[in-house]
Request: fold
Amino acid sequence: MADRVSWLQIEAGWKVVAADGGTIGTVTEVAGDKESDIFDGLAVTTTGDPQVRYVPGEVVGAIFVGQVTLTIADTARLEPFEAAPPETVFRPDREKPSLTTRLSRWLGGNR
Reply:
């Protein structure tokens, strides 16, 4: 049998197998924060179901190259997958002078 691998290596298209050995479907997306090494779960396209399902990280067992095995056999209760909302990143406007510069100009009479 192959060696286990980290969740960081899971890729879309890998086979997802239940604890009883039955194939559930394939990985669509990996949910987690790779920089902080926090695994949240998987989005899985299940066989015979057009809706993508969410597999929480708590029920992911052994991970081998090309295959993720779950610790549960009953996958009928898996919730639909909902992608995380996009993050809003605020960046300072580089073209606008700093507050100090604007105050200095205002106090100096350059309004």
Summary: The chain has a mean pLDDT of 87. The two ends are 75 Å apart (CA to CA). The chain is about 10% helix and 35% strand. Strands lie at 15-17, 23-33, 38-46, 52-56, 60-64, 67-70.
